[in-house]
Amino acid sequence: MISLQPVGRPDAPLARRNPVAKLAAALLFTFALMATLDPVAPAIAIAVELAVLPLFGLRPRELVRRAWPLLAGAGGILVTLMLFAADRSGRVLLDAGPVVVTSGVLVTALGLVLRLFAVALPGVLVFATTDPTDLADALVQNARAPARFAIGALAAFRLLPLLGQEWQMITMARRARGVEAGRSPVARLRLFVSTAFTLLVGAIRRGTRLAVAMDARGFDAGVARTVARRQHFGTADWLLVVGATALAGAALGVSVALGTFRPLLG
Amino acid sequence: MGQSITNRWRTIDIVVAAVIAVAFGVIFWAWGLVWRAADPAFAFFPASQAVMYGVWLVPAVLGGLVIRKPGAALFCEAVAATVSALLGSEWGGVTIAQGLIQGLGAELAFAAFRYRSFRLPAALLAGALTGLGAALFDFFVWNAPYALVSYRIPYALLTVFSATVVAGAGAYALTRALAATGVLDRFPAGRDRALV
Amino acid sequence: MGMGEVRLRGFGWRHAGRRAWALRGVDLRVERGERVLLLGPSGAGKSTLLAALAGLLPEDSGEQEGTIEVDGRSPHAVRERVGIVFQDPQTQLVMARCGDDVAFGLENRAVPAEEIWPRVDEALARVGFRYHRDRPTAALSGGEQQRLALAGVLALRPGLLLLDEPTANLDPGGAALIRSAIADALDDDTTLILVEHRVAEALPLVDRVIVLEAGGGVRADGTPEAVFGTHGDALAADGVWVPGRTVSPRRAAAPAGDVLVTTERLGLPPRLADTDLEVRAGEALAVLGPNGAGKSTLALLLGGLLRPGTGRVAARPELADADARTPPHRWPAPALARRIGSVFQDPEHQFVTGTVFDELALGLRRTGASEATVWERVDQLLERLRLARLAGANPYTLSGGEARRLSVATALATAPRLLICDEPTFGQDRRTWRELVELFADLRDDGHGLVTVTHDAEFVAALADRTVTLDRPPTTRDGTAATEDGAIETAAGVPR
Ligand SMILES: Nc1ncnc2c1ncn2[C@@H]1O[C@H](COP(=O)(O)OP(=O)(O)OP(=O)(O)O)[C@@H](O)[C@H]1O
Ligand SMILES: Nc1ncnc2c1ncn2[C@@H]1O[C@H](COP(=O)(O)OP(=O)(O)OP(=O)(O)O)[C@@H](O)[C@H]1O
Ligand SMILES: [Mg+2]
Ligand SMILES: [Mg+2]
């Protein structure tokens, strides 16, 4: 169901960068873009994101596989905006009861849909090319995250792919004992909820045992841990962070220069 | 009753909080799809979709109620948001910031009770405040382009309402149900069960 | 590092939520470098004792009596000298890559970074781990996980090594490898305490045997010769597997009856290669094969719980009545549960309710039995499998052997016409083992069909009328992996 292994070539120039640098770059880039509602800045951002795709060692196919839920999101935005846009300036293109579509609405819609993609793609790029273990290591070593929390979260995260198998097991166990929903939707919903609850209980139980196993190997001994896997944060990593910020700034700058800039607040 | 002896997190606190977060990260990921699939059902008045909002906020309250340590609500909600971003959500890396703000709301509620009471009132307040955090974030960041009176305000109010009911009362009920299964035996929330 | 002396004085432990003490009044002294086999009936508190020695019984999870010391100090204080491998290896792998997992303990103990990887490689080599350290831990079979868990502990060079049934669920070859890895890994300074029900295999590793009494105290203690020589009969009667004592087999009273189920080129790539077999009423069929051969997958397919990838499962009218046209995986659940019972390999995968009693009653209620019948049948099973005092307990708090018995009992409760059991006897003491053989044999003689997946040669010898051996699914595309040998000679040919 869910794959956690990074996809793409791990030795691509940007995929190789420090995970914390990648994350910081993505967040800075995203938040800069969040500041505007116009279509120009996100369009430039998307162009940039697609341009760096090969540098992350990703093929477009993989991007599409991870980003398809965005399409549904775009549809939702369009519907809502048709009905409830704040800004209905411009030429009226369609007027049918509550649905009033003006050129202003269309521009806003375009801006929002582009913004949706521009905001989501950096996350996809980073997480599709980052190994969770490396991320936790880098968070501890380069971002001073508390080691116990980072490693604890990582250990819990490793259980994630098991949840899918567990779901299947629970369903089989119930079937073997004669428990099944049949066709009634209400019964189905109830069985679904009870299966999900059982899954949560099982996950917590596993977590409890995992914590004991970690303690058995000295996790909570109060000594400062050493690190077996070194993560370096070098010049190239700084460049990535600075570059991402600069590119986002440039996208906003172009938008301002063209007079399309529409600040989020104000 | 129920006050933990120390505020230091044990390994089991960290791992179980993270497990709850990871499980909800998956639920978020699925809920995101459900949310989109439910769009047409709310087309008559899209703001009303905020009644579904509470599910995004359950881990904040649940984490606080189960772990009962300062920071638990924040940690659970933030990790859950990060996991859903990792699995690929349409809201991208922004969910991480959003998770922090939502978690902060619940955290404030538990702090207001000085991490001593974890009964229904605390749970409801935590739900309401995490909903408030969520509502403020959405009001300014996501909903800015929409009409104020017919969309942004009802959306915010419904978010808080849904958070109080689904995340507040819901997480409270969920904690009790979990305690009844015995998995919380090593937490204050799971004490006081009958001997066998 | 070394050390590893153990002292217990009047030690007892009661788990939170239980009335009975898991251990009580244990007085024990183990010297540095001794190798101890810890025995006792299922539920006697062996796993609990190991957890206590490893400092893994937190005060908030139960109540302690007496004292327990490792090297003269509380086990909580000297955790770094103790290494433990649990009954279930899956729960103790922490990291996503094998090498990282072994390194995990070293990092925690603040071993300097440049020493870590050499020690990781050395530990992996000592247990004969054959993959690169980058291999994902999720891609290991059960036996390989056992080995990795052992490496993770050996890398820490513990003075006291605690092993809880390290070879349960392994095929005989894999178990022998683990045992030789343990023997190689021990040096003169390491104290070993090993829990293992099957004494004969473990004896070469130990020089002392300690038998725990169910309900408290130490029952016998000394060299293997002394313990088994003086107390052999009494111990055997109590449920200890005393070496050299065979169990009289229960052969089928009558020849096998009608065919219940057949499979035709049944498979689920890549987990199971095409398999043809048939199961008859009044017959016990044993499915054998190495770890990873697809035995559990076959059991789930036969049980109507998985959809076949290739080929089909065909139930005969004898079993399926009117449903004979549809394959079992399409039957409605209540009909399935009435006809075919399944026991999963991991007992915990099977539990659906919150108490032992409800667990047993569930199937009966689902198939429409009256409440009086339910009580009668459940009580009878609880008694026979020695679970009566646990009727109100949560299934997930049971000991390894108790959980296994409960999962078998849930399937026995509804007495389905066809019963499919995956490793029904692992972790059992001799007494419950015999009880299980009797229960199965009675069912068979009543005309039920019985399929058991097992690594337990003695069980095959005692019960099976016919065996099927699966091979690992071939890497090449053609060729059936499953072979069926119709004969029963195995029963006589099994050693001991
Ligand atoms: N976490 C727990 N909570 C409550 N009771 C427990 C728990 N773990 C074990 N017990 C009970 O304590 C007793 C001893 O269990 P333990 O696991 O130590 O037995 P064991 O000798 O290892 O048995 P086996 O050979 O079956 O593994 C059992 O009756 C069991 O039900
Ligand atoms: N849910 C699953 N998804 C994918 N592969 C699986 C799954 N379960 C098992 N496998 C793989 O299929 C193969 C057969 O597994 P199976 O559990 O049937 O073996 P087995 O013969 O029962 O082994 P063992 O003796 O260790 O129990 C193994 O290689 C295993 O890793
Ligand atoms: Mg045990
Ligand atoms: Mg198996």
TrEMBL record, chain A:
Instruction: Give the CDD domains listed for this entry.
Output: EcfT
Q: How does it sit in the membrane?
A: Multi-pass membrane protein
Q: Which keywords belong to this entry?
A: Cell membrane, Membrane, Transmembrane, Transmembrane helix
Where in or outside the cell it occurs: the entry states:
Membrane
Major place of residence: membrane
Alphabetical list of InterPro entries matching this protein: ABC/ECF_trnsptr_transmembrane (IPR003339), ECF_transporter_component (IPR051611)
Q: What is the protein name given in its UniProt record?
A: ABC transporter
Organism name: Micromonospora qiuiae
UniProtKB/TrEMBL annotation, chain B:
Q: Name one Pfam family in it.
A: ABC_cobalt
| Keyword flag Endoplasmic reticulum | no
What are the UniProt keywords, alphabetically?
Membrane, Transmembrane, Transmembrane helix
Q: What InterPro entries does UniProt report for this protein, alphabetically? A: ABC_thiamin-permease_prd
Q: Which residues form a coiled coil?
A: none
Residue ranges of the TM segments: 12-31, 43-65, 120-141, 153-174
This one is known as ABC transporter permease
UniProtKB/TrEMBL annotation, chain C:
Keywords in alphabetical order: ATP-binding, Nucleotide-binding, Transport
What is the annotated signal peptide range for this record? none
Against SUPFAM superfamilies, the record matches this protein to: P-loop containing nucleoside triphosphate hydrolases
Q: Does the keyword Transport apply?
A: yes
Provide the family line: Belongs to the ABC transporter superfamily.
Q: Which GO terms describe its molecular function?
A: ATP binding
Which named protein is this? ABC transporter ATP-binding protein
The question of whether ATP-binding is a record keyword is answered with yes
Looking at the record, which segments are called Disordered?
470-496
From what organism does this protein derive?
Answer: Micromonospora qiuiae
Give the matching Pfam families: ABC_tran (PF00005)
| Domain (ABC transporter) ranges | 6-240, 254-496
